Amino acid sequence: MKILSNNKKAFYDYIILEKFEAGIELFGSEVKSIKEGRANLKDGFCRIQKNEVFMYNTHVSPYVNASIFNHAPERVRKLLMHKREIIKLNNKIKEGGLTLVPTKIYSNEKGLIKVEICLAKGKKSYDKRDALAKKDFQKKLNKKVKYDNL
Known about the structure:
It is a single chain. This protein is α+β, with helices and mostly antiparallel strands. The protein has a single domain (2-123), classed as Small Protein B, Chain: A (Beta Barrel). Helices cover 35% and strands 36% of the residues. It contains four helices and nine strands. The longest helix has 25 residues, at 125-149.
């Protein structure tokens, strides 16, 4: 599995509850651009409409070597999942204040491009501060251990 794009901001802004794998409907120039690592998931989110999942606000830069008929960089992209999974996700989203967030785009063993979407709950500002404090403490601890071993 080769990770092509990552959404680090999602782990800062949301508490990740469950992860799902979905295929993505792409044009040829989008596939080539994503394989070059020119995708951005930073502000991306997913919605379920009429038992189909769509991904919004993800930027895939136009492929340089494509013709003048290139793709739109921020178009809405359809995600491919089984109907049972979509219904299960839709029920969970309706019952609680949850959202679907794309966390990474990767290519699997067969060379197909997949998206990992997560069922997530938004963090409050004090949760974010607490996470930053823990991360900072861990950094200092690792630094101290590193210098003590020298």
